[in-house]
User: Fold histidine kinase from Paenibacillus sp. BIHB 4019.
Amino acid sequence: MNSLKTRIVWSYLLLIALVVVVLGGLFATLITNYYYGSAQSSVKQRAVSALATHNRTMASLKMHDQADYMLQYMVEGDTRLQLLDVYGNVRMDSDGLVEDIHYNTLDVQAAMNGNTDIWQGNDPYYKERVTSITIPVWNDTHVVSLLRYSASISAVDDMVSQLLRMTAFVGLAVILLFLGLSLWLAQRIVRPIRELTRAARYMADGDWTRRATKRSNDEIGQLAETFNSMVVELNHREKLKNDFISSISHELRTPLTSIRGWSETLKEGDPADNEEMKLGLQIISHETLRLSGLVEDLLDFSKLSAGSMELHAELLDLNSPVKETAAQLGVRQDQTGVKLLVTLGKSPVMVYADANRLKQVIINLIDNAFKFTPAGGTIRVSISITPDENFALLTVADTGCGIEAEDIPHVTEKFYKANTGQGGSGLGLAICKEITELHAGEMKIDSERGAGTVITIKLPISHQDKPAT
Assistant:
């Protein structure tokens, strides 16, 4: 299985194996060089010392006399000493034996040429591994004989082999140890990820109660915390969506019920009853407008969610859409008993905006103010400019019921409806905020329960006579 755990374990295992092999190789090289180098150094030191002491005497003697002299004065320790002629034939051995032996090893060849060299390998006659050095005996200008010092390295081989086996065992133990550690570490890493995956699958199956367990404060712990926050937010949004569906179903059903009821009433009623006819048509017209407003909110929400809402911006005086909207909605003063007071800018306030979308925002804000302001209250709409003259401020303030402090951060969220007892889609302020931000503006809400609400739209002022291209 190509799982994360498997990849982690293999990664650590390959890394540790590589490190162990490299370090083990270096250690093996060091101990091999040390032990074999020590053996060669010992033989070489003995040969050089003997040459310095006995070369002059040996050079003046005949071959058979050299053999006697060697046996009498030069044999010592466990080093094998052999006297060879210039052709590599053994003339005398330190054991006093004369055998028909001929050497052609590298150290002997070098000595034949007047040089000194060390050789290590299997002795072709004694069948054991040795290290040997052959030195030439000079008589003025030519070599008269060769002295070959050799020592068995079987003990060194055994020691090096034992150390190499120990090194291999320790290396294998280290690899197995780190294999266990990597399995444990991979399990610690993978376990919370698997729990997250399991929780996500439960969520995909519709169980939104699952939560990931935060086991640490590292990145995975933060991922679990973020996942849980996401689940809470999704639950919240799912609840808002369900509430919205329930609410919009009710909001759509109410005007349809009224329209259907009055349609049947007028159909079955007395055509001559003008009062009933007038009331019924008025209610049908009112409910139709209400139904149309809900559908428009849904369409606008769909466009904003899809990012497909287009602005047909132009250079305009902000006073104009505010004045038109105030005149359009001013008739509701007599119906609601709420005063609508409008204060326009003293001079044109030029902004680069979509007049229809801007008017939609103003209608929505004033409509909300009428909806939540009781009879005898006041709605004030005003236009002003910031001191730096870079932004226009459109303010809609009412003396209505206000908004609870805990609801203020959420009233511009899609589907959110504060507990006011009033109907609606829950999309009005969300759409207003989105349209304002599409105009590079900001919307700010200040409210206090029982004291009223102030909503301020901040838009950048255009200082040009025409929009920049």
Summary: The mean pLDDT is 83. The chain has three domains: 4-158, 219-306, 314-460.
